[in-house]
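Page 37, top half.
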Amino acid sequence: MTSPSQANRAYWDDDAANYHAEHPEYLSSFYWCPEMLHEGQAHLLGNVSNSSVLEIGCGSASCTEWLQSRAHFATGFDISRGMLNHAAPGLPLVQADALSLPYATDAFDDAFSAFGAFPFLANLDLALSEVSRVLKPSGRFVLSTNHPMRWIFPDDPTDLSYFDRAYLEQDRDGYLTYAEFHRTIADWFKALQGEGPFLLGDIIEPEWPMDLTTTWGQWSPKRGETFPGTIIFVCRNCR
């Protein structure tokens, strides 16, 4: 039986070239979301000049690359070798699964994920526990992901309920080929703070910029002026 990790690794390996061809501007620097909120503008990680920073689900690591001249040390990992192959040469990257991080306990001052890994993880609690483990106590964790409301307005004709927690694709033989997972606002609160290892400091819902005309699946000017497509959680490690 194909696991979600195996399915998504194969999916992103196959789609890496197409993904980079379709989204060159977004992948050119450290953008938190399709609304093109830049870390240089948002400062969600704060001053990282003396910090070791981990990017979770880095893809081709455009965010990690941007941090190289700003952080004391910045590294990232991704499950997809195909995505990592598109990264700039010389970046300190590894191939790994977010459910089993290959880093020592208390290894990093800060960690973040800009639409990386978390929408594709069936076991959110395990992934967050791993992030908490590798973060130093009181370390900052920032996560941007699909806004829960956006789930019910997909970019294909599939009908999804706000209370559906997964979208799965299978081939003709019944093998899983793609897996994406949804969390409600209540799910996120319980996972991060209610029963989880973090203390929520802020929740951000970026507005769609008036001058941004890009349509990217579920993200577009028409939808963006009506409701948010991204949610960003800013947290502290409470371990």
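Page 37, bottom half:
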Amino acid sequence: MSRRTLTRRFRDRTGTSPQRWPLQQRVDHARLLLESTDDTMDRIAADAGLGTSVNLRHHFHRLLGTTPAAHRALFRR
């Protein structure tokens, strides 16, 4: 299967590219951890595969339009 065909089929099924999908999965996992644990941002970033809290904040804001702290606060009310 060609790269173009793979990319097109992947996008049809997932709504995103093969390159972006893992990042979206990591941010989604971080989102769930923020909602369900009291772990630190560094711990959540490491558990989600984002490395550091700086990367977590950057990608979280870029993909979801909010900060991890603001997202956590929304679910702590």
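Margin note: The two ends are 49 Å apart (CA to CA).
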